[in-house]
Amino acid sequence: MKSTISRVAISTLAICMGLLMAPPRYRASANEIAKDARSQSATDLMEQQIVSKEREELDSLRAGNLEVFSNLLADDAVFLDAEGPASKEEIVKNVAGFRLLEYSMEGVKFVPISAKSGLITYSITERGVSHGKEFAAHIYVSALWLQRGSQWVCVFSQETVAKPAKGQ
Asked: Which of 28, 103, 159, 168 has the least C-beta neighbours within 10 A?
């Protein structure tokens, strides 16, 4: 009986020592929780600003306002589509003959890159006129926006035409 009690006592002591020596479970402090909440709200704000700027860019194409469109693009911006890469100058020149009549953005996703940059992806269904010809398209878009000074500018955009649905 003494050996059973000894074994139980030694086992209990070993378990207690193991618990005392084990690393403590992580528990976030109130400061860490508040910091995470501030960080999340800053990320949410950045997402709202970038999506708003992307819509402003599209709305300027609908209104035919090339000045607003051009001001939303970084001077060193690169755009990529089926025609290949293009500079800001080439894009602004090309959209002079382009008018967006209507569009809808769907499935917007946001990825923060830094405190002053973020990437959005979405699909757009659009209808418009390009160089005198009407068109309708469904396109996947990604756009990288940077805050330079107090202004948000698009520095990169890629468009990929969506495959037609089966049976179309």
From this structure: 168
